[in-house]
Amino acid sequence: MRERIIDAALKRFTYYGSSKTTMNEIAEDLHCSKASLYYYFPDKQSLHVAALEKAGETYFQDLQEKAEQAATARQAFMELIATRHEFAKRFCRLELFKVLKDRQLMRFAHEAFENAREREIGIITNIIEKGAARGELVTADPEKVAALYMHAMIGLRLSLVSKDLSEEISDEEFERVREWQVQLADIFINSLKK
Q1: Local structure of residue 19 (DSSP, 8 states)
Q2: For residue 93, what are the contacts with CB-CB under 8 A and spacing of at least 6?
Q3: Can you give the pLDDT at residue 143?
Q4: b (16+ CB within 10 A) / e for 89-108
Q5: Closest by alpha carbon to 191, among 73, 71, 69, 66?
Q6: Does pLDDT of 101 surpass 80?
Q7: CA-CA distance, 137 to 128, in Å (whole number)?
Q8: How far is CA 34 from the centre of its chain?
Q9: Across all residues in the chain, what is the average pLDDT?
């Protein structure tokens, strides 16, 4: 039942946004009582975080799969950018920026965000290590370079947020960030070449 609740919430949050979705609506979608939802989740914030974690798990599975299938480090980096871009467009209404801004929600989500950061750094580290093993890249500290790269990518995503963090990002802004990320990936890759 817990997974059914998360799936229903994720579907509704993805379409309408968390702030515009009520626990009553999720209960109606599942044909159950609101009390059933509260048995598994004490409040909407904890359900929101669970939905983010589920979406994140799908994201990381996609990242890992594409990174492993790539023939070169550059191809792997470009696949990561495409996967991030697709994920952000698909799940933009999950109100991730709102969670990052809301202290109460961050108490629920802090550990999940830290785990996500470590997983993404791990995937990028593996790409760099494989690139080094194939003779494409050179670095003394792949994990440190991976962390720097990931934080630079986050910075590009957040650079558009000169407006309120809760506002939606336009298709043009999504595309601008994707272009910047491709350029930054090329800069990183070229700086790591022999």
Answers
A1: T
A2: 13, 14, 15, 16, 17, 18, 168
A3: 96
A4: eebebbbbbbbeebeebeeb
A5: 73
A6: no
A7: 7
A8: 29
A9: 85
What is the token pair recorded at 191? 């700086």
Whether pTM > 0.85 for this model: the answer is: no
CA–CA dist 131, 72 (Å, integer): 7
And the tokens for 85? 């871009």
98, 105 Cβ separation under 8 angstroms: yes
Q: Which of 82, 95, 1, 87 is CA-nearest to residue 39?
A: 1
For residue 170, the 8-state DSSP code is: P
More confident residue, 108 or 80: 80
3-class DSSP state for residue 139? coil
User: Length of the chain in residues, anyone?
Assistant: 194
pLDDT at residue 168 in the model: 62
For 178-182, the CB contacts below 8 A with 24+ separation are: 178/81, 178/85, 180/156, 181/81, 181/84, 181/85, 181/153, 181/156, 182/78, 182/81
pLDDT for 36-58, tens place per residue?
999 999 988 889 888 888 888 88
Q: What are the phi and psi torsion angles at 193 (to 5°)?
A: -75, 155
91, 18 in Cβ contact below 8 A? no
Q: What is the DSSP letter of 162?
A: T
Ordered alpha helix ranges (H), 17-95: 23-30, 34-40, 44-69, 73-90
DSSP bridge partners of 193: 137
